[in-house]
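Job type: complex structure
Entries:
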Amino acid sequence: MPALAEMIARGRLIEAHRPCPRIAVEEDLWRAFASMLAEGRATLLGLWGEAGAVHMGLLDEAESAACIVTRPCPEGHFPSVGRAHPPAIRLERTIRDLFGLEPRGLPDPRPWLDHGRWGLRHPLAIHPAPVSAPEPYPFLTSEGEGLHQIPVGPVHAGVIEPGHFRFTANGEAIVRLEERLGYAHKGVDSLTTGAPIERAARLAGRMSGDSTVAYALAFARAVEAALAIEIPPRAIWLRALMAELERLANHFGDIGAICNDVAFALMHAHCGVLRERVLRAAAASFGHRLMMDCIVPGGVGVDLAEGAAAPVRELLDVARGAFPALIELYDNTASLQDRTVGAGVLSMALARQYGCGGFIGRASGRNFDARRNLPYPPYDALAFEVPALSDGDVNARVWIRIREVEQSLSLVEQILDAMPEGPISVPLPANKSGEGMALVEGFRGDVLASVRLDAAGRVACSRLRDPSWFQWPLLEAAIEGNIVADFPLCNKSFNCSYSGHDL
Amino acid sequence: MRKILLESLLKGPLAEPSPGAEDPELLAFAAQVASAARAKLGRSLSIREIDAGSCNGCELEINALGNAFYDLERFGLRFVASPRHADILLVTGPVTKNMGEALLRTYQATPAPKWVVAAGACALDGGLFAGSYACLGGVAAAIPVDLYIPGCPPTPTALLEGLLALMG
Ligand code: SF4
């Protein structure tokens, strides 16, 4: 069985791409890469289109090697990867919706992000087509005695993002969940195409607001790879500080919110306080609670002023003082554990097959973290552990978050202690073309950014792949056999992004 | 658990004083709503939040209103699950075309008198997403808007100021 490196050697290397290779391939080699995925010899990192071509990102986890494979499709079609490898199905439906390229052999003929309301079809194709009235969306059928359907959304009961869930239940037990997403589709790819780098970076930071730092970092790193520039050490360390603060804020929020979904308000209140303290420390240090637009291609936009690290140090003290009692509270409250243990189990096999990242993957035995597996600075100089469990239930996903909070607190301290002095950004070279890719570990999992810059230094093609692409489908599997009333709990324990997924 | 409860009791609440509104636009709006709302609804308003395709940044800050520092409910404001129970629709996002109908139907399901608050740069005019084939470009493109709260995302304090203006 040829390894990824051997397979790469068979394609036509595209020199401009950094840091991993990108190759253009013929149809048979494209199929061979698809078989690698289907046989579990590589992990799908992403699959996206542009007018006239499709690109597939692959990862060899054992070798820590990644590559991008491009199949030009002048005839408007390409062999479906999803036919043999289900994690690609929704990505291919999206390519068809946006670019009008046909994944030949794709088992699901239905649209995905296109709800028939854009006023045109294939908005990113060279020649978009007009559209008539929206067509009804055929949900998958479930047949059997006593089954009933419960439609939920896109407007939900809580303050959450829009999406539609179609449950088929037998009494209380969920027989099938089918998701329908795309309600938050804003057309980001069309807005970034042809945009100046600075505008595209701001858009990247708004793919999913809870991961604004991770997205801005991924985009910036991809641009810097494309332009082959190095950024100052201080910028690298400031970025990591922001990334860990973002992780802390989200994990605190999630741990509280999961407990709240089983009506344990005390945890929610206390975790909410910790989350708020992180955001206030971020605002005091970087001027924005979510740190939006603080990372820019070339470095960071705001420096940590003299003394501005004090709120972060204070946060460390407060969190270290308060969090252990909350862990104990979670661990010792039987009524809470009764709901989280054994609920929404995701198998390791599925987590691996889908290349499912973040706490979802790590709670189901897929021990992958881009900070360690494909290390980028400064993480290669920091000491941290990547917690992993194999139970795959809600409880395991809570515990991974708890352990990651502890790791991030330690990382923040290490980063503050080692923070180098110096400039915080470098100017980007004007009118330089290039191609770059970056994989960054956000709180939810690995965010992929792929960017091509044209000779005028504008974004010719950019794609940001949210970790949720490989997590949403698994929620459908994990929920099977659970009771309808446990869906909010399981959903929150996954906490997938709607906006990040919907593009 | 008892220890945590006891400590919280002894330490006293974290809730901060209400932010006063100084913005003239807010004050004018307050005066207008106050007479209508106070007569019909008393000193309590129910809010139905609708994400019309936001990046979820706005939702994070709206959710923060419930934490111990802002403690929204002490002002008589609360989030409700159904538009049929709502006095106020709090809408975020550039209004994606895929959410247009859902937003309109939620608005129609809300009994009068009702007010629409658009929160965030996107809700004003589409923000960074303005001009996309997939967005209507702001809440006013779909339903009438009474108050706009700026920010990307608006801070919880800004949201609180805006919502408190509704209370007169
Ligand atoms: S206003 Fe800003 S935070 Fe709110 S949805 Fe728009 S981009 Fe996101």
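Summary: Residues A 206, 209; B 54-55, 57-58, 92-93, 120-122, 127, 152-153 surround iron/sulfur cluster (CB under 6 Å). The mean pLDDT of chain A is 93.
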